[in-house]
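We store chain and fold; thus.
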Amino acid sequence: MAETITEWQARQYSDNVNYVYDGLRGKSVDSLVMGEMIHSPVQGVLDSFNPVSNGVARDKVDRYEDTVWSELAKSRRWCRPYKTYMALPLDTFDQARSAVSNINGVHTTQIAKALRNREFIRFFAAAVGTAITGENAAGTSALPSAQGIALGTTPSDVLTLTKVKSASALFDLNGVPADPSVRHWGYAPGQKSAILAITQAASSDFTKNRIYDKGNIDGDMWMGFTWHMFADVRGQDDASGLSTLERILPISTTTRTNIAWSTDAIGISRISGVRTRLSELPDKTYTWQAYGEIDVNMVRVLDGGVVSILCLEE
């Protein structure tokens, strides 16, 4: 006779997945933007963000002059949330070890990690992708070419100090506050060697971060940016070594896209947080299914708050 799933087990599983998801080491997507850029919970197919440009005050010329109205440029960006899920079967062997009731269990942890990774992928895809625009969501807007820094030729194809300065200058030009809590930089492990080779980043003569001591700049503030490393999702060992399951930051052959952004440049629309199901599958000999999903997406709201930086993947 098959063992049935109790209501308590289903609730415990849900609590455990959410607990692990919230407590995963590293960054959450929500921590990468300011609170005003997170819409949660939202309803409907599309969610809108409505950026407004800065205005310019007028000098009064005549003592009794007529009032002259100023104009604020307004636009609209749309986000279309959709679901991502992970479903895993649990047979008798798994049930004894997986941990539907153990917060450190294999299935619980892997579902939480998979959902978190997918959020990061969507975040960076939205940062450099095509945004839905217009009053009626009928237009599109690509990241302007002026917001991109080219790969360059050897030896300048790696991540260089010049590229960091160029990204910083673009943010300055676009009025992004010169504050490392506002300006962020996402890079892949393939840029680590190049960063360590930048004297102004690695030498204690220039910075107190002492990145050679810890071997990484991840989490440090340097050149006006807070730096974040995002590694690709690697799979199990096989005959050819570790396989790459998902790319967090975009890559084309050996060209990796680093992405710099301001915390007000990308909007997050979340219909729901993590939802789970723990079910019996009668058509699968009453195997259990552990299921988790999120319903969320992102959109680039301010073009001037995102810079794409192409670098050689070493």
Summary: The mean pLDDT is 90. The longest helix spans residues 106-128. The first strand starts at residue 38 and ends at 39.
